[in-house]
Design a protein that fits this description.
This protein is of the alpha/beta class and about 550 residues long. The protein is built from 16 helices and 21 strands. The two termini are about 15 Å apart. The structure holds 1-deoxynojirimycin.
Protein backbone atom coordinates (compact mmCIF):
# COMPACT_ATOMS: atom_id res chain seq x y z
CA UNK A 1 0.00 0.00 0.00
CA UNK A 2 1.23 3.43 -0.87
CA UNK A 3 2.55 5.54 1.96
CA UNK A 4 2.01 8.86 0.22
CA UNK A 5 -0.70 10.76 2.07
CA UNK A 6 -1.81 12.80 -0.90
CA UNK A 7 -2.77 9.69 -2.88
CA UNK A 8 -5.40 8.87 -0.28
CA UNK A 9 -6.53 12.40 0.48
CA UNK A 10 -9.92 14.00 -0.04
CA UNK A 11 -9.20 17.66 -0.71
CA UNK A 12 -11.76 20.36 0.05
CA UNK A 13 -11.25 23.78 -1.50
CA UNK A 14 -12.60 26.91 0.13
CA UNK A 15 -12.14 30.62 0.23
CA UNK A 16 -11.97 31.95 3.80
CA UNK A 17 -13.88 35.11 2.90
CA UNK A 18 -17.06 33.27 1.89
CA UNK A 19 -16.99 30.35 4.35
CA UNK A 20 -17.95 31.52 7.85
CA UNK A 21 -17.85 34.97 9.45
CA UNK A 22 -17.15 34.84 13.21
CA UNK A 23 -17.11 38.57 14.03
CA UNK A 24 -20.10 39.87 12.09
CA UNK A 25 -18.20 42.19 9.73
CA UNK A 26 -19.67 40.50 6.65
CA UNK A 27 -16.44 38.75 5.62
CA UNK A 28 -15.54 35.14 6.43
CA UNK A 29 -12.50 34.72 8.66
CA UNK A 30 -10.09 32.18 10.12
CA UNK A 31 -11.97 31.93 13.43
CA UNK A 32 -15.14 31.20 11.45
CA UNK A 33 -13.37 28.42 9.60
CA UNK A 34 -12.00 26.97 12.86
CA UNK A 35 -15.56 26.80 14.20
CA UNK A 36 -16.58 24.69 11.19
CA UNK A 37 -13.71 22.20 11.21
CA UNK A 38 -15.88 19.59 12.93
CA UNK A 39 -18.27 19.80 9.98
CA UNK A 40 -15.41 19.15 7.57
CA UNK A 41 -14.08 16.27 9.66
CA UNK A 42 -17.51 14.66 9.70
CA UNK A 43 -17.75 15.05 5.93
CA UNK A 44 -14.56 13.02 5.70
CA UNK A 45 -12.29 15.67 4.27
CA UNK A 46 -8.58 15.07 4.99
CA UNK A 47 -6.98 18.15 3.45
CA UNK A 48 -8.08 21.75 2.99
CA UNK A 49 -6.90 23.85 0.07
CA UNK A 50 -7.33 27.49 1.00
CA UNK A 51 -7.66 30.02 -1.83
CA UNK A 52 -5.25 32.94 -1.33
CA UNK A 53 -5.02 34.04 2.29
CA UNK A 54 -2.60 36.95 1.92
CA UNK A 55 -3.15 40.71 2.14
CA UNK A 56 -4.47 41.84 -1.23
CA UNK A 57 -6.39 44.66 -2.89
CA UNK A 58 -8.69 41.80 -3.96
CA UNK A 59 -9.10 42.77 -7.56
CA UNK A 60 -8.75 39.09 -8.53
CA UNK A 61 -10.23 37.51 -5.41
CA UNK A 62 -6.88 37.45 -3.63
CA UNK A 63 -4.83 36.18 -6.60
CA UNK A 64 -3.18 39.61 -6.52
CA UNK A 65 -0.92 39.40 -3.49
CA UNK A 66 0.44 42.43 -1.66
CA UNK A 67 2.45 40.65 1.05
CA UNK A 68 3.44 36.98 0.91
CA UNK A 69 4.38 36.82 4.59
CA UNK A 70 1.07 37.63 6.20
CA UNK A 71 -2.65 36.86 6.19
CA UNK A 72 -5.25 39.30 4.97
CA UNK A 73 -6.16 41.43 8.03
CA UNK A 74 -9.84 40.87 7.42
CA UNK A 75 -9.28 37.11 7.88
CA UNK A 76 -7.44 37.52 11.20
CA UNK A 77 -3.72 37.37 11.95
CA UNK A 78 -0.88 34.88 11.87
CA UNK A 79 -1.78 33.76 15.40
CA UNK A 80 -5.24 32.78 14.19
CA UNK A 81 -3.69 30.95 11.27
CA UNK A 82 -1.36 28.97 13.55
CA UNK A 83 -4.39 28.07 15.67
CA UNK A 84 -6.24 26.88 12.55
CA UNK A 85 -3.34 24.60 11.67
CA UNK A 86 -3.28 23.20 15.19
CA UNK A 87 -7.04 22.57 15.38
CA UNK A 88 -7.20 21.08 11.89
CA UNK A 89 -4.25 18.83 12.75
CA UNK A 90 -6.11 17.59 15.86
CA UNK A 91 -8.89 16.40 13.56
CA UNK A 92 -6.47 14.76 11.13
CA UNK A 93 -6.92 17.48 8.52
CA UNK A 94 -3.94 18.89 6.64
CA UNK A 95 -3.91 22.38 5.14
CA UNK A 96 -2.40 23.52 1.87
CA UNK A 97 -2.49 27.11 0.67
CA UNK A 98 -2.45 28.82 -2.69
CA UNK A 99 1.02 29.90 -3.74
CA UNK A 100 0.57 32.73 -6.24
CA UNK A 101 4.06 33.68 -7.35
CA UNK A 102 3.77 34.12 -11.10
CA UNK A 103 2.87 37.73 -10.35
CA UNK A 104 2.21 40.15 -7.52
CA UNK A 105 -0.37 42.86 -7.10
CA UNK A 106 0.76 46.17 -8.64
CA UNK A 107 0.32 47.49 -5.06
CA UNK A 108 3.04 45.17 -3.75
CA UNK A 109 5.92 47.26 -2.32
CA UNK A 110 8.30 45.38 -4.65
CA UNK A 111 6.46 46.64 -7.70
CA UNK A 112 5.96 50.12 -6.31
CA UNK A 113 9.69 50.38 -5.73
CA UNK A 114 10.56 48.76 -9.08
CA UNK A 115 8.44 51.14 -11.15
CA UNK A 116 9.41 54.34 -9.41
CA UNK A 117 13.21 54.05 -9.42
CA UNK A 118 15.45 52.63 -12.18
CA UNK A 119 18.06 51.98 -9.49
CA UNK A 120 15.63 50.12 -7.22
CA UNK A 121 16.88 46.71 -6.05
CA UNK A 122 13.46 45.43 -7.16
CA UNK A 123 13.61 46.85 -10.70
CA UNK A 124 14.76 43.55 -12.13
CA UNK A 125 12.19 41.55 -10.14
CA UNK A 126 9.67 42.28 -12.90
CA UNK A 127 9.70 41.90 -16.68
CA UNK A 128 10.23 45.12 -18.68
CA UNK A 129 10.59 46.29 -22.23
CA UNK A 130 11.73 49.74 -23.45
CA UNK A 131 9.56 49.52 -26.53
CA UNK A 132 6.08 48.19 -27.23
CA UNK A 133 6.51 44.41 -27.79
CA UNK A 134 4.91 43.31 -31.07
CA UNK A 135 3.27 40.30 -29.40
CA UNK A 136 1.60 42.39 -26.69
CA UNK A 137 -1.88 41.47 -27.86
CA UNK A 138 -1.21 37.74 -27.64
CA UNK A 139 -1.45 35.18 -24.85
CA UNK A 140 -4.21 36.80 -22.78
CA UNK A 141 -5.74 34.46 -20.20
CA UNK A 142 -8.93 36.47 -19.75
CA UNK A 143 -10.07 37.40 -23.27
CA UNK A 144 -12.81 40.01 -23.13
CA UNK A 145 -11.57 41.33 -19.77
CA UNK A 146 -7.91 41.72 -20.66
CA UNK A 147 -6.76 43.57 -23.79
CA UNK A 148 -3.01 42.85 -23.76
CA UNK A 149 -0.16 41.12 -21.95
CA UNK A 150 2.22 44.10 -21.98
CA UNK A 151 1.09 47.48 -20.64
CA UNK A 152 2.84 50.82 -20.45
CA UNK A 153 3.71 52.06 -16.96
CA UNK A 154 3.83 55.86 -17.03
CA UNK A 155 5.94 56.09 -13.89
CA UNK A 156 8.52 53.56 -15.05
CA UNK A 157 8.24 54.85 -18.64
CA UNK A 158 8.54 51.25 -19.75
CA UNK A 159 6.30 48.37 -20.76
CA UNK A 160 5.74 45.65 -18.17
CA UNK A 161 4.61 42.09 -18.71
CA UNK A 162 1.44 40.66 -17.16
CA UNK A 163 0.18 37.25 -18.24
CA UNK A 164 -3.07 37.96 -16.37
CA UNK A 165 -4.77 41.31 -15.58
CA UNK A 166 -2.75 44.52 -15.92
CA UNK A 167 -2.76 44.96 -12.12
CA UNK A 168 -0.81 41.67 -11.80
CA UNK A 169 2.75 42.34 -13.04
CA UNK A 170 4.71 39.10 -13.63
CA UNK A 171 7.73 38.36 -11.49
CA UNK A 172 10.97 37.80 -13.39
CA UNK A 173 11.96 34.16 -12.88
CA UNK A 174 15.27 34.81 -14.65
CA UNK A 175 16.34 36.80 -11.61
CA UNK A 176 18.03 34.46 -9.07
CA UNK A 177 16.81 36.67 -6.22
CA UNK A 178 13.20 36.08 -7.29
CA UNK A 179 13.82 32.33 -7.42
CA UNK A 180 15.30 32.42 -3.91
CA UNK A 181 12.43 34.54 -2.60
CA UNK A 182 9.87 31.98 -3.81
CA UNK A 183 11.69 29.30 -1.84
CA UNK A 184 11.78 31.54 1.20
CA UNK A 185 8.01 32.13 1.00
CA UNK A 186 7.39 28.38 0.85
CA UNK A 187 9.66 27.68 3.77
CA UNK A 188 7.99 30.37 5.88
CA UNK A 189 4.57 28.72 5.52
CA UNK A 190 5.92 25.20 5.90
CA UNK A 191 7.54 26.31 9.12
CA UNK A 192 4.13 27.52 10.32
CA UNK A 193 2.76 24.07 9.60
CA UNK A 194 1.10 23.94 6.18
CA UNK A 195 1.41 20.65 4.31
CA UNK A 196 2.08 22.09 0.90
CA UNK A 197 0.91 24.41 -1.82
CA UNK A 198 -1.56 24.68 -4.63
CA UNK A 199 0.74 26.37 -7.10
CA UNK A 200 -1.02 28.87 -9.28
CA UNK A 201 -0.20 29.19 -13.00
CA UNK A 202 2.93 27.01 -13.02
CA UNK A 203 3.63 27.08 -16.78
CA UNK A 204 3.74 30.89 -16.55
CA UNK A 205 5.87 31.00 -13.39
CA UNK A 206 8.72 29.23 -15.15
CA UNK A 207 8.41 31.22 -18.37
CA UNK A 208 11.50 33.31 -19.06
CA UNK A 209 9.55 35.91 -20.94
CA UNK A 210 11.27 37.68 -23.83
CA UNK A 211 9.51 40.66 -25.44
CA UNK A 212 8.40 39.69 -28.94
CA UNK A 213 8.75 35.96 -28.31
CA UNK A 214 5.35 34.39 -27.57
CA UNK A 215 7.12 31.06 -27.16
CA UNK A 216 9.69 32.09 -24.56
CA UNK A 217 11.89 29.42 -22.92
CA UNK A 218 10.74 27.66 -19.75
CA UNK A 219 12.91 27.00 -16.73
CA UNK A 220 11.71 23.47 -15.91
CA UNK A 221 14.74 22.62 -13.77
CA UNK A 222 13.60 25.30 -11.31
CA UNK A 223 10.69 23.03 -10.41
CA UNK A 224 13.16 20.30 -9.48
CA UNK A 225 15.17 22.76 -7.44
CA UNK A 226 12.07 24.02 -5.63
CA UNK A 227 10.84 20.50 -4.89
CA UNK A 228 14.23 19.51 -3.50
CA UNK A 229 14.33 22.56 -1.30
CA UNK A 230 10.82 21.91 0.06
CA UNK A 231 11.48 18.28 0.66
CA UNK A 232 14.59 19.03 2.60
CA UNK A 233 12.61 21.33 4.91
CA UNK A 234 9.47 19.16 5.21
CA UNK A 235 9.73 15.78 3.64
CA UNK A 236 6.03 15.07 3.09
CA UNK A 237 5.07 18.53 1.81
CA UNK A 238 3.28 18.48 -1.54
CA UNK A 239 3.04 20.65 -4.59
CA UNK A 240 -0.33 20.54 -6.33
CA UNK A 241 -0.09 22.50 -9.53
CA UNK A 242 -2.34 24.23 -11.96
CA UNK A 243 -0.83 23.52 -15.39
CA UNK A 244 -3.51 23.49 -18.05
CA UNK A 245 -1.22 22.55 -20.95
CA UNK A 246 -1.24 20.23 -23.98
CA UNK A 247 -1.16 16.51 -23.02
CA UNK A 248 2.35 15.97 -24.46
CA UNK A 249 3.75 18.64 -22.14
CA UNK A 250 2.24 17.27 -18.95
CA UNK A 251 4.82 14.69 -17.91
CA UNK A 252 7.63 17.25 -17.82
CA UNK A 253 5.88 18.94 -14.91
CA UNK A 254 6.08 15.73 -12.86
CA UNK A 255 9.73 15.03 -13.50
CA UNK A 256 12.72 15.21 -15.81
CA UNK A 257 13.67 12.66 -18.47
CA UNK A 258 15.08 10.35 -15.80
CA UNK A 259 11.51 9.13 -15.20
CA UNK A 260 11.30 9.93 -11.51
CA UNK A 261 8.82 12.24 -9.82
CA UNK A 262 11.19 15.01 -8.79
CA UNK A 263 9.07 18.05 -9.63
CA UNK A 264 5.34 18.56 -8.99
CA UNK A 265 3.58 15.78 -7.01
CA UNK A 266 0.06 16.42 -8.27
CA UNK A 267 -1.45 18.15 -11.27
CA UNK A 268 -5.09 19.09 -11.71
CA UNK A 269 -6.56 16.87 -14.37
CA UNK A 270 -7.94 19.53 -16.72
CA UNK A 271 -8.04 17.11 -19.60
CA UNK A 272 -10.26 14.65 -17.74
CA UNK A 273 -12.41 17.51 -16.46
CA UNK A 274 -13.33 18.68 -19.97
CA UNK A 275 -13.95 15.13 -21.17
CA UNK A 276 -16.09 14.33 -18.12
CA UNK A 277 -18.25 17.33 -18.94
CA UNK A 278 -18.56 16.17 -22.53
CA UNK A 279 -19.42 12.62 -21.44
CA UNK A 280 -22.07 13.89 -19.01
CA UNK A 281 -23.51 16.20 -21.66
CA UNK A 282 -23.75 13.37 -24.21
CA UNK A 283 -24.67 10.54 -21.85
CA UNK A 284 -21.87 8.63 -23.54
CA UNK A 285 -18.77 7.12 -21.94
CA UNK A 286 -16.44 7.40 -24.93
CA UNK A 287 -14.81 10.73 -23.97
CA UNK A 288 -13.86 9.30 -20.55
CA UNK A 289 -12.40 6.14 -22.03
CA UNK A 290 -10.43 8.27 -24.52
CA UNK A 291 -9.17 10.46 -21.70
CA UNK A 292 -8.03 7.46 -19.65
CA UNK A 293 -6.32 5.96 -22.69
CA UNK A 294 -4.71 9.20 -23.91
CA UNK A 295 -3.24 10.07 -20.54
CA UNK A 296 0.52 9.81 -20.40
CA UNK A 297 2.00 7.38 -17.88
CA UNK A 298 3.20 9.19 -14.78
CA UNK A 299 6.35 8.46 -12.83
CA UNK A 300 5.67 6.67 -9.50
CA UNK A 301 4.49 9.25 -6.98
CA UNK A 302 3.07 11.50 -9.69
CA UNK A 303 -0.66 11.85 -9.14
CA UNK A 304 -3.70 13.47 -10.78
CA UNK A 305 -6.09 15.66 -8.83
CA UNK A 306 -9.60 15.25 -10.22
CA UNK A 307 -12.36 17.82 -9.98
CA UNK A 308 -15.72 18.67 -11.46
CA UNK A 309 -15.97 22.26 -10.24
CA UNK A 310 -13.36 24.63 -8.90
CA UNK A 311 -13.36 28.37 -8.14
CA UNK A 312 -12.95 29.28 -11.82
CA UNK A 313 -15.14 28.72 -14.86
CA UNK A 314 -15.46 25.16 -16.21
CA UNK A 315 -12.64 25.37 -18.74
CA UNK A 316 -13.58 23.65 -22.00
CA UNK A 317 -10.64 24.98 -24.00
CA UNK A 318 -9.11 21.52 -24.52
CA UNK A 319 -12.23 20.30 -26.34
CA UNK A 320 -12.79 20.89 -30.06
CA UNK A 321 -15.13 23.76 -31.03
CA UNK A 322 -17.91 21.29 -31.85
CA UNK A 323 -17.50 19.41 -28.57
CA UNK A 324 -17.46 22.70 -26.67
CA UNK A 325 -20.67 23.75 -28.39
CA UNK A 326 -22.28 20.46 -27.31
CA UNK A 327 -21.39 21.10 -23.66
CA UNK A 328 -22.52 24.73 -23.87
CA UNK A 329 -25.84 23.64 -25.29
CA UNK A 330 -26.49 21.19 -22.47
CA UNK A 331 -24.98 22.96 -19.48
CA UNK A 332 -24.63 26.66 -20.29
CA UNK A 333 -26.90 27.61 -23.17
CA UNK A 334 -27.29 31.31 -22.29
CA UNK A 335 -24.50 33.70 -23.11
CA UNK A 336 -24.63 34.93 -19.52
CA UNK A 337 -23.65 31.43 -18.32
CA UNK A 338 -20.51 31.42 -20.45
CA UNK A 339 -17.19 33.09 -19.87
CA UNK A 340 -14.09 33.97 -21.93
CA UNK A 341 -15.56 32.07 -24.87
CA UNK A 342 -14.27 28.83 -23.36
CA UNK A 343 -16.05 28.18 -20.10
CA UNK A 344 -19.16 27.98 -17.97
CA UNK A 345 -19.57 30.06 -14.82
CA UNK A 346 -22.06 27.79 -13.07
CA UNK A 347 -22.00 25.31 -10.24
CA UNK A 348 -22.67 21.64 -10.95
CA UNK A 349 -26.17 21.32 -9.46
CA UNK A 350 -27.71 23.95 -11.77
CA UNK A 351 -25.73 22.61 -14.73
CA UNK A 352 -27.41 19.26 -14.11
CA UNK A 353 -30.87 20.86 -13.60
CA UNK A 354 -30.70 19.91 -9.93
CA UNK A 355 -31.36 16.30 -10.86
CA UNK A 356 -30.28 14.54 -7.67
CA UNK A 357 -29.60 11.21 -9.38
CA UNK A 358 -27.39 12.87 -11.96
CA UNK A 359 -25.47 14.89 -9.37
CA UNK A 360 -24.70 11.71 -7.39
CA UNK A 361 -23.70 9.94 -10.59
CA UNK A 362 -21.30 12.74 -11.54
CA UNK A 363 -19.60 12.87 -8.15
CA UNK A 364 -19.52 9.09 -7.80
CA UNK A 365 -17.70 9.00 -11.11
CA UNK A 366 -15.22 11.72 -10.19
CA UNK A 367 -14.38 10.20 -6.81
CA UNK A 368 -13.96 6.67 -8.19
CA UNK A 369 -11.74 7.53 -11.15
CA UNK A 370 -7.95 7.71 -10.86
CA UNK A 371 -6.33 10.36 -8.73
CA UNK A 372 -7.11 12.40 -5.66
CA UNK A 373 -10.56 14.01 -5.56
CA UNK A 374 -10.91 17.75 -4.98
CA UNK A 375 -14.28 19.09 -3.86
CA UNK A 376 -15.31 22.75 -3.94
CA UNK A 377 -17.13 24.07 -0.84
CA UNK A 378 -20.92 24.05 -1.12
CA UNK A 379 -21.00 21.33 -3.78
CA UNK A 380 -21.71 18.78 -1.04
CA UNK A 381 -25.07 20.43 -0.33
CA UNK A 382 -25.84 21.22 -3.99
CA UNK A 383 -25.40 25.00 -3.88
CA UNK A 384 -26.37 27.07 -6.91
CA UNK A 385 -24.83 30.11 -8.59
CA UNK A 386 -25.77 33.79 -8.86
CA UNK A 387 -25.52 34.83 -12.49
CA UNK A 388 -26.30 38.45 -11.63
CA UNK A 389 -22.76 38.73 -10.22
CA UNK A 390 -19.79 39.58 -12.45
CA UNK A 391 -17.63 36.91 -14.06
CA UNK A 392 -16.49 34.11 -11.76
CA UNK A 393 -18.13 35.70 -8.70
CA UNK A 394 -21.30 33.83 -9.71
CA UNK A 395 -19.84 30.66 -8.14
CA UNK A 396 -18.16 32.36 -5.19
CA UNK A 397 -21.20 33.15 -3.03
CA UNK A 398 -21.17 32.54 0.75
CA UNK A 399 -21.57 29.07 2.20
CA UNK A 400 -25.16 28.30 3.18
CA UNK A 401 -25.17 26.97 6.73
CA UNK A 402 -28.69 27.35 8.05
CA UNK A 403 -32.11 28.96 7.83
CA UNK A 404 -31.07 32.00 9.86
CA UNK A 405 -30.37 35.40 8.28
CA UNK A 406 -27.72 35.35 5.53
CA UNK A 407 -27.92 31.57 5.53
CA UNK A 408 -26.01 31.54 8.83
CA UNK A 409 -22.88 32.82 7.07
CA UNK A 410 -22.71 36.15 8.89
CA UNK A 411 -24.72 38.32 11.31
CA UNK A 412 -23.83 41.50 9.39
CA UNK A 413 -26.55 43.43 7.53
CA UNK A 414 -27.00 41.83 4.10
CA UNK A 415 -25.61 44.90 2.29
CA UNK A 416 -22.29 44.56 4.14
CA UNK A 417 -21.60 40.99 3.04
CA UNK A 418 -18.52 40.26 0.96
CA UNK A 419 -20.92 38.88 -1.65
CA UNK A 420 -24.69 38.33 -1.49
CA UNK A 421 -25.93 35.00 -0.15
CA UNK A 422 -28.21 33.19 -2.60
CA UNK A 423 -31.57 33.93 -0.98
CA UNK A 424 -34.29 33.24 -3.50
CA UNK A 425 -35.55 30.36 -5.59
CA UNK A 426 -34.61 26.71 -5.73
CA UNK A 427 -31.02 27.28 -4.54
CA UNK A 428 -31.81 29.92 -1.90
CA UNK A 429 -30.43 29.19 1.58
CA UNK A 430 -34.00 28.55 2.72
CA UNK A 431 -33.96 25.40 0.58
CA UNK A 432 -30.29 24.53 0.41
CA UNK A 433 -28.36 24.62 3.70
CA UNK A 434 -26.19 22.44 5.91
CA UNK A 435 -28.52 22.34 8.94
CA UNK A 436 -31.45 20.93 6.98
CA UNK A 437 -29.26 18.30 5.38
CA UNK A 438 -27.11 17.35 8.34
CA UNK A 439 -29.61 15.05 10.07
CA UNK A 440 -31.54 14.00 7.01
CA UNK A 441 -30.21 10.62 6.00
CA UNK A 442 -31.57 11.05 2.49
CA UNK A 443 -29.88 14.41 1.87
CA UNK A 444 -27.09 15.08 -0.61
CA UNK A 445 -24.79 15.95 2.30
CA UNK A 446 -25.45 12.58 3.97
CA UNK A 447 -24.78 10.92 0.65
CA UNK A 448 -21.41 12.70 0.35
CA UNK A 449 -20.49 11.60 3.88
CA UNK A 450 -21.33 7.99 3.01
CA UNK A 451 -19.57 8.11 -0.32
CA UNK A 452 -16.39 9.61 1.13
CA UNK A 453 -16.39 7.08 4.00
CA UNK A 454 -16.69 4.27 1.48
CA UNK A 455 -13.90 5.73 -0.62
CA UNK A 456 -11.61 5.84 2.37
CA UNK A 457 -12.18 2.12 2.85
CA UNK A 458 -10.99 1.51 -0.69
CA UNK A 459 -7.30 2.42 -0.76
CA UNK A 460 -6.91 0.99 -4.28
CA UNK A 461 -8.85 4.01 -5.56
CA UNK A 462 -6.43 6.88 -5.78
CA UNK A 463 -3.21 5.01 -5.16
CA UNK A 464 -3.88 2.01 -7.40
CA UNK A 465 -4.40 1.67 -11.14
CA UNK A 466 -7.58 2.81 -12.88
CA UNK A 467 -8.58 0.89 -16.01
CA UNK A 468 -11.70 0.87 -18.17
CA UNK A 469 -13.09 -2.67 -18.46
CA UNK A 470 -14.34 -3.72 -21.86
CA UNK A 471 -17.57 -5.67 -21.22
CA UNK A 472 -20.88 -5.86 -23.10
CA UNK A 473 -22.67 -2.68 -21.93
CA UNK A 474 -24.84 0.09 -23.40
CA UNK A 475 -23.08 3.23 -24.75
CA UNK A 476 -23.86 5.22 -21.64
CA UNK A 477 -22.47 2.71 -19.15
CA UNK A 478 -18.87 2.89 -18.01
CA UNK A 479 -17.22 -0.03 -16.23
CA UNK A 480 -13.83 0.60 -14.69
CA UNK A 481 -11.69 -1.02 -12.05
CA UNK A 482 -9.15 0.04 -9.44
CA UNK A 483 -6.43 -2.37 -8.39
CA UNK A 484 -3.52 -2.43 -6.03
CA UNK A 485 -1.98 -4.87 -3.58
CA UNK A 486 -4.85 -4.26 -1.11
CA UNK A 487 -7.57 -5.45 -3.47
CA UNK A 488 -9.86 -4.60 -6.38
CA UNK A 489 -12.96 -2.48 -6.80
CA UNK A 490 -15.18 -2.47 -9.88
CA UNK A 491 -17.39 0.50 -10.72
CA UNK A 492 -20.42 0.67 -12.97
CA UNK A 493 -21.76 4.12 -13.91
CA UNK A 494 -24.70 4.87 -16.13
CA UNK A 495 -24.36 8.32 -17.68
CA UNK A 496 -27.62 8.02 -19.53
CA UNK A 497 -31.30 8.21 -18.63
CA UNK A 498 -31.93 4.70 -19.87
CA UNK A 499 -31.66 1.88 -17.33
CA UNK A 500 -29.67 -1.05 -18.67
CA UNK A 501 -27.80 -4.25 -17.95
CA UNK A 502 -24.10 -4.98 -17.99
CA UNK A 503 -22.49 -8.35 -18.45
CA UNK A 504 -19.73 -8.77 -15.87
CA UNK A 505 -19.22 -12.51 -16.38
CA UNK A 506 -15.66 -11.97 -17.66
CA UNK A 507 -14.79 -10.77 -14.13
CA UNK A 508 -16.53 -13.67 -12.35
CA UNK A 509 -13.35 -15.68 -11.88
CA UNK A 510 -11.81 -12.81 -9.92
CA UNK A 511 -14.85 -12.20 -7.75
CA UNK A 512 -14.47 -13.69 -4.29
CA UNK A 513 -17.57 -12.44 -2.51
CA UNK A 514 -18.72 -9.56 -4.67
CA UNK A 515 -21.04 -7.03 -3.05
CA UNK A 516 -22.22 -3.47 -3.59
CA UNK A 517 -20.46 -1.22 -1.11
CA UNK A 518 -22.19 1.87 -2.52
CA UNK A 519 -25.02 2.13 -5.03
CA UNK A 520 -27.77 4.50 -6.10
CA UNK A 521 -30.41 1.99 -5.00
CA UNK A 522 -30.87 -1.46 -3.46
CA UNK A 523 -30.00 -3.85 -6.27
CA UNK A 524 -30.29 -7.02 -4.16
CA UNK A 525 -27.74 -9.82 -3.81
CA UNK A 526 -25.11 -9.95 -6.52
CA UNK A 527 -25.20 -13.74 -6.48
CA UNK A 528 -23.82 -15.17 -9.68
CA UNK A 529 -21.60 -12.59 -11.28
CA UNK A 530 -23.04 -12.25 -14.77
CA UNK A 531 -25.62 -9.79 -16.04
CA UNK A 532 -26.32 -7.01 -13.57
CA UNK A 533 -28.84 -4.17 -13.66
CA UNK A 534 -27.99 -0.48 -13.60
CA UNK A 535 -30.62 2.22 -13.15
CA UNK A 536 -31.13 5.63 -14.76
CA UNK A 537 -28.00 7.64 -13.86
CA UNK A 538 -27.18 4.68 -11.62
CA UNK A 539 -23.87 3.67 -10.09
CA UNK A 540 -22.58 0.62 -8.29
CA UNK A 541 -19.30 0.28 -6.43
CA UNK A 542 -18.56 -3.40 -6.20
CA UNK A 543 -15.83 -4.85 -4.04
CA UNK A 544 -14.38 -7.68 -6.05
CA UNK A 545 -11.48 -8.75 -3.94
CA UNK A 546 -9.82 -7.69 -0.72
CA UNK A 547 -6.44 -8.93 0.38
CA UNK A 548 -6.76 -10.00 4.01
C1 LIG B 1 -5.49 30.92 -11.78
C2 LIG B 1 -6.54 31.02 -10.71
O1 LIG B 1 -7.21 29.79 -10.60
C3 LIG B 1 -7.46 32.14 -11.09
O2 LIG B 1 -8.56 32.23 -10.21
C4 LIG B 1 -6.68 33.43 -11.12
O3 LIG B 1 -7.50 34.48 -11.59
C5 LIG B 1 -5.46 33.33 -12.03
N1 LIG B 1 -4.71 32.11 -11.80
C6 LIG B 1 -4.53 34.49 -11.83
O4 LIG B 1 -3.81 34.32 -10.65
Amino acid sequence: MSDRWYEKAVIYCLDIDTFADSDGDGVGDIRGLISRLDYLARLGVTCLWLNPIHPSPDRDDGYDVEDFYNVHPRFGNLGDFAELLHQAGNLGIKVIIDLVVNHTSDQHPWYQSARSDPESPYRDWYVWSDTAPPDRRQGMVFPGEQAETWSYDRTAKMWFYHRFYNFQPDLNIKNPRVREEIKKICVFWLQLGVSGFRMDAVPFIIEETEPGNPDSPKNMPYLTELRQHLQWRKSDAVLLAEANVEPDQLVGFFGDEGGSNNRIHMLFDFMLNGRLMLALARGDTEPIIDALQDTPKLPPGGQWATFLRNHDEVDLSRLTATQRAEVFEQFGPDENMQLYGRGIRRRLAPMLSNDRARIELAYSLQFSLRGTPVLRYGEEIGMGDDLSLEGRDSIRTPMQWSLTANGGFSTAPAERLVRPVISTGEYGYQNVNVTNQRHDRTSLLSWFERMIRTLREAPEVGSGTCTPVDVPAPRGVLVHRADDDTGTMVFVHNLSEEPGTVDLSSLAAEAEQPNDVLADQEYGELGKFDSIAIGRYGYRWIRLRRVP
